[in-house]
Amino acid sequence: MSTTEGTLHAGAIAVPPVPPRDGDPEVTAELVADHGLSGEEYERIRRIMGRAPTFTELGVFSAMWSEHCGYKNSRRLLRLLPTEAPWVIQGPGENAGVIDIGDGYALAFKIESHNHPSAVEPYQGAATGVGGILRDIFTMGARPIAVLDSLRFGDLDSGRVRYLFAGVVSGVGDYGNCVGIPNIGGEVAFDRGYEGNPIVNAMCLGLMKREELITASASGAGSPLMAVGARTGRDGIHGATFASEELSEDSDEASRPQVQVGDPFTEKLLLEASLELIASGAITGIQDMGAAGITSSASEMAGRGGSGVEIDTARVPVREPGMTPYEILLSESQERMLVVAEKGKEDEVRRILEKWELEAAVIGHVTEDGRFRVLEHGVVVADIPALPLTQGCPTYEREGVESEHVRSLREKDLAEHLSPEGDLGDRFLRLLGSPNIASKRWIYGQYDTTVRSSTAVRPGGDAGVVRIRGTRRAVAATTDCNGRFVYLEPRRGAHIAVAEAARNLVCAGALPTAITNNLNFGNPLKPHIYYQFREAVLGMAEACQAFETPVTGGNVSFYNETDGRAIYPTPVIGMVGVVEDIDHITSHAFRNEGDAIVLLGANDAEMGGSEYLYVTAGLVAGRPPSVDLMAERSLQQAVLGMIHEGLLRSAHDCSDGGLAATLAEAALGDGESPWGIEVALDDDLPPVGVLFAETQGRIVVSCDPDHAGAVLRIAEIHEVPARVIGTVGRPGGDLNLRLTRGFVSVPAARAAEAYFQAIPSIMDAPATAGA
Amino acid sequence: MSSHRIEIRVKPRPGLLNPEGKAIHHALVSLGWTGVEDVRVGKVMYLDLDAPSPEAAVEAVEAMCRKLLANPVTEDYEVSVVGEAEVVG
Amino acid sequence: MRVAVVTFPGSNCDYDLYKAVQLVGGEPTFVWHRDRQLAGYDAVMLPGGFSYGDYLRAGAIARMSPIMDDVVAFAHRGGPVLGICNGFQILCEAGLLPGALVRNASLRFESKDVHIRVERADTLFTSDYDHGRVLRIPIAHGEGNYEAGEATLEQLEGDGRVAFRYVSADGEVTEAANPNGSWHNIAGIVNDRGNVLGMMPHPERATEAILGSTDGLGLFTSMLRSLAPAAA
Q: Which of A86, A101, A746, C108 yields a CA-CA distance of 20 to 30 A from A109?
């Protein structure tokens, strides 16, 4: 282990001493440890300050140097990710990444986690997670146009898990519905690996004209700093540090005062007011008071602007009397923004905020001295050099060693599972009824998916698609990660996550363009977790390079552990793509009786990490399927070529549940008119492998039979294996799959019942236990 | 055993934001009730319960509050006996 | 057709409504709820969303907005007023339409496409539809369960003031087709003069093929046609 020794604090400037504030505790070694800072880090703070920090200053450092704000255990590896491309306007480091999507438009997008808050209070935790990601987008000057949610829970047979799942879904829904942003997709997985520590990641896309981009920096000495929106309360104090610790059994009790309550109505007003403020030219910077509240927003804006800030906590509107500077600086009350007004334009700012019925107060101003200075009624309580505070957090490279247990799971022989006793049709239905494969309509039926009247592809398919009014273009987005694969072999699992995301986008007719990632892992101080993290980041970097999809930002969530047990490593890929012409928008569902069904890519019998093993044997083991990144890329190009030629009626990525699930999903569509299918597969493989292996690099498309020849020719040009495997049957017919060594036949109605009723039958059953 | 009518007042925890109360407060002030300092919205529930004594009834209902009726993270509760339950024919 | 699209704090379908009016050739203008200017408009539309967060009761606080006095006066003069989703809730709270919209029977927000049947094709809002036509239109609401007293319901049915009803794809009034528990599968009603329509489904979200349905267009073209002579 080594620490960086940057030059930021070299030659620390002598700092005027700040006397301790009455009533504040004395800074002791124990207090330092309680703030999650190591002895070494504390020494570094002393060097930066040239003296011991006050209690308030300690709180400020602790928040800014937490994992959440300082990325201390991840920053070095994250540098390996490709972040540049000609279409990237804003890479990592801002509130959100921004890319050029053509016709003068830019897309801001980002994903963020709210795992820990959701584990304690699922409804508010998820709701405030959505609120935070929306603010990250509209503070860039972009209007939010879509959200997606990527969720993981334990198995639904636990009452506590059902409570968490129901609460998170209604929290995500209520918040986005109220603000009026359509939910266009996402994913959910259920696996005992997430019991007790759910994953709640929310992604948002925002649209703006290229010239509307604004960045969060404070410049112009004397410019007033304004706190806008909700008042500051005691909620969420030390949320940033909290997000950087493991949960334990008594977390519910101990964490209670930290719960933040979301107010989507105020958020909607903030959204409109912020966009109006940015358009008015009356402000020079704006930032969400998110994790670590005023502290991070003010110091980061000062750090980016190369300036300083001075704030008087007595001028911050508070919800409760008697709040100390420490509490005001670290509060994570929601729906608050920090705005830097153009000097002399305060009244214009006030007029706009008054229109939107929002409170605003001048709490300080921009300075030239590079310091983050905090006063209380004019008395200095904190005085810290801004740059070392925001940029000087030590970063670490840890020791990474693979767990022996995981290695043995990966090397497990799965041969017995390839030739089971019993009926294949029953297994097929069981798989369709597994909550991981089954329709997620129970979830997105609670989300407004059509508000803004621009949703071209709603949730339930491979990727959500939103059209851009006034152009022929649309944007597509997806979130993907199979945590089991990453657990069993992190590097390969990361390849698969990126490849699957890209496949999902091309199936919708979009060119994969850029990525935001949410790296959900356990405690990085444990060598086997750090190993997972390092390998996954390396794998992600390789795949992003292969697909030319740079990473423009994201979020790291460590310490996802309960009682020492970590979640599966889950690096969620949020990928966006551009649809050049709305005529290219393609859906996953079959559309016409008699259409040819074409399989692109080759089958194999790779059962490792499959849903089939989990459902039939409760097993998470084996080597995840292999990935050939160059072949994936050819496959994507071939499918886009077919779509551009107008040849395809549908395209569906082959992933969880294998080819059988893919065909069933395409046949069942949204459930209104399930099609029968007649498919014959002549692979010389065990039936279980052909049907249920989650072999990568496959897409199932359908087309007019007269176009099948053209489809096969395009595949050949791109050197993608392709063959016609069957035809779409009549509505309400049977799903017939003929194999060299077996035959599966299931009536579409039975498949539909298994697929659409699985989650409702669990969640809507009477007497669901409470918390 | 006799049947007791229990009133449960579920209140937002002090210090936590109460968005609903905030919006109602705003509306009241704009309608001219300027003296209103704060509004917080909770719930009242009525429950009829068979129990050997009022104390036992309260004890049982408090357990229900902890388990289900109140969200211990965001809400407090008060339980009181408001009389005998009405006999339903 | 000059249309005032009223924006309340928390409205979120105002833009969609604006675009739908524009699409059929109308002239929409956003009117902020504190700007009391409805003179010179041929119609007023109250959009969907969550005015004041739907706190207290959906529409209850927005109903107190300054502009609502003007909307009520506009309606009493016979001016056409259309309220969609939250707009319907506000119209009920304001007394321009009878009854109330309470929580969905499922106790959940319901977002999906539904089928509704045109029960009245002789209003200024529905004249471009054929009587009995089944429309496919999205809903997205948590409180869309229409409730009214027995006498009111009898009067509504007796006077033929139910404009739209939730039905199955083939036009049958069934319990399964009712997404929120509304009495008599009511999806939209008009006032006794026929110049105020409130409905829960969102016709403005079903106006272009790319959105999956164009069945909502008729509402806007009906209004345009009905109001064109007056505007000329």
A: C108
Q: Is C55 on the interface with B (CB under 8 A)?
A: yes
Q: Which two tokens stand for residue A510?
A: 């979009």
CB contacts, 8 Å: C108 with chain A: 170, 445-446
All residues of chain C having their beta carbon less than 8 Å from the beta carbon of residue B20 are 53, 55-56
Rg (CA), chain A: 26
Is CATH 3.30.1280.10 correct for B2-84?
Answer: yes
ipTM above 0.95, yes or no: yes
Give residue-wise pLDDT tens across range C17-70. Answer: 999 999 999 999 999 999 988 999 999 999 999 999 999 889 999 999 999 999
Specify the pLDDT at position A673.
87
Q: Which of C7, C22, C141, C210 to mutate to test the interface with A (most CBs of A within 10 A)?
A: C210
Q: Are A737 and A729 in contact (CB under 8 A)?
A: no
Task: Domain of residue C191: give its range.
Answer: 2-231
* Residues whose CB is less than 8 angstroms from the CB of residue C168 and which lie 6 or more positions away in sequence, other chains included: C115, C174, C176, C177
Instruction: Look up residue A79 and give its two tokens.
Output: 């540098």
Indicate the domain borders of chain B: 2-84
Q: How far is B70 from chain A (nearest CA, A)?
A: 10
Judge: C210–A268 Cβ closer than 8 Å, yes or no. Answer: no
Closest Cα in chain A, distance from residue C145 (Å) = 16
| CA dihedral for A741, A746, A748, A754, sign (positive or negative) | negative
Instruction: Return phi, psi of residue A567, to 5°.
Output: -70, 170
Kindly list the residues from chain A whose CB atom is less than 8 angstroms away from the CB atom of residue C53. Answer: 178, 263-266
For the segment A260-314, what is each residue's pLDDT rounded down to a tens digit? 889 999 999 999 999 999 999 999 889 998 888 899 999 888 888 788 999 999 9
What φ, ψ does residue A265 adopt, rounded to 5°?
Answer: -65, -45
Which residue from A154, A137, A155 is spatially nearest to A146, judged by alpha carbons?
A: A137
Q: Which of A165, A440, A448 to mutate to test the interface with C (most CBs of C within 10 A)?
A: A448
Coil vs helix vs strand at A272: helix
C90: which residues sit within 8 A by CB, 6+ positions away? C8, C46, C51, C59, C62, C63, C68, C83
The residues, ordered by sequence, that sit 6+ positions from C181 with a Cβ below 8 Å of its Cβ are: C104, C105, C106, C145
- The pLDDT tens digits of the residues spanning A336-382 come to 999 999 999 999 999 999 999 999 999 999 999 999 999 999 999 99
The pTM of the full predicted model, rounded to 2 decimals, is 0.93
Element (H, E) at A185: strand A183-190
Sign of CA dihedral A491, A497, A500, A501: negative
C76: tokens are 């009493």
A371-376 vs A308-312, strand pairing mode:
parallel
DSSP state of C80: -
A114 counts as catalytic: yes
How far the first Cα of chain C sits from its last, in Å, is 9
Q: Between vectors from CA A27 to CA A329 and to CA A20, what angle results, nearest 5°?
A: 65
Task: Kindly give the parts of chain A with pLDDT less than 50.
Answer: 1-14, 249-256, 767-771
For residue C9, the distance in angstroms to the closest alpha carbon of chain A comes to: 7
Residue B86 DSSP label: P
**Number of C-alpha atoms within 13 angstroms, CB side, residue A623?**
9
The residue to which tokens 């493989």 are assigned: A685
- Looking at residue C169, its amino acid is A
Domain count, chain C: 1
- pLDDT at position B15 is 79
CATH of the domain at C89: 3.40.50.880
